[in-house]
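<goal> How does this chain fold?
<body> The protein record starts here
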Amino acid sequence: MKNITLIFTLILILSSCNQSEKSNNESYTPISHADMENAVIYEVNIRQYSKSGTFKAFTKDIPQLKQLGVKIIWVMPIFPISETKRKATGGDFAYLIEDEAERNKMLGSYYAVSDFTKINPEFGTIDDFRDMIKMAHDNGMYLILDWVPNHTGWDHTWLTTNPEYYTQNKLGEVIDPINPDTGESWGWADVADLNYDNQKMRDEMIEDMLYWVEEENIDGFRCDVASAVPLDFWEDAIPKLRAKKSLFMLAEADAPYLLKGESLFDMAYGWERHHIFNQMAKSDNAVVLWDNVIKTDTDRYEPEDILMNFVTNHDENSWNGTIYERMKDASELLTALSFVAPGMPLIYSGQEYDLDHRLLFFEKDLIPHTKKTMWPLLEKLGQLKNSNPALNGGKNAATYKKIQQENSKILAFKREKEGEKVTFLGNFSPNQEQFTNPSVGALDYASGGVESKEILSLEPWGFRILVEK
């Protein structure tokens, strides 16, 4: 009788646990096209986000990202990093460093993956990773993984078990990735180039991606150098992934063909826009540069295509400079433009805390955690992006209309949807500029007051956002 009672009690406990787990996930639904309309995406560099560089340290901060309008969290690669040919600061291999203490500081590139189905112990455990996903889902956010389909690190088991999975030279030696435009190495000597002529390798790559969708309930992938992988792989892989659940797919590429139809990627990089951002900060012709890139993107992409707008990311920060190095006094203006322009804005780890140094890429570093100028700006912009249909930038985006201004230093445009209108006004000049108000009677989003003046002025590199129904 005691045994029967014990068994019944255990059944009740297990049932209660299952109900509790189900209850915790009741508010979670897979990502939809509607979620993409007003989303802000956040790229987290786990290693550099905190002193410990762990999932746990980032997980506790996820709830406050809602203040910035974040709906999608993109986690840089979480996989174990190869020891063989591990890169060190300065670009050499870590093994060339004679001093052991210095050599041990070199953690290598996240993009030199040794196993696509394991967790980098540097970041924590698989349970820590699951806690991070749960925290995101519990807070109404989605989490996507950074996937590296073009190459692996030199420790990956495939190099031993299936060398035919890799590109080889005439001597039968596995090689690092080659730039197709030059025929020369990209310089990524810490990774081995995968051979997409091999169908079995393709199948295993898809199986590894499916593991994270089916077993760990992730919400999509950011795919590294997506355009270097054959299109027919994505045409095969993405529908198989989406057959399991709705996913968000981001291609690291400025390539319209990767967004064609519903079976490929949802969003691509606005690389050309980013390059123009950098130029606008130091050009006397900034407004024309912006008008030209918008026209080019409109001609190249379909209306339902999404482009990611960014003033920084992990590559730009580490290799090309901080926002303040590249954009100087125009930093806040261009950040605002990245939110108000058609597309989805990106926040990179540290941007919200006015990160003003280049993060080390191959060893431990640390972002600041003091809220200064950028946090309140991003918070204000994120709330507007989330709440106003006139800033929708997904598959059913708001309209974009340029507003002509006699003053050539003033960028002016209007977004509109569902009766809501948002006008952006930006001064791309180191001088105070006056101009005609195109939205008399609209609300100034920053102050909340009605803007009734017919002639407005903007401080150097200043901006205004006017909201009307």
In short: The chain has one domain: 23-398. Residues 165 and 201 are 6 Å apart (CA to CA). The longest strand covers residues 410-417.
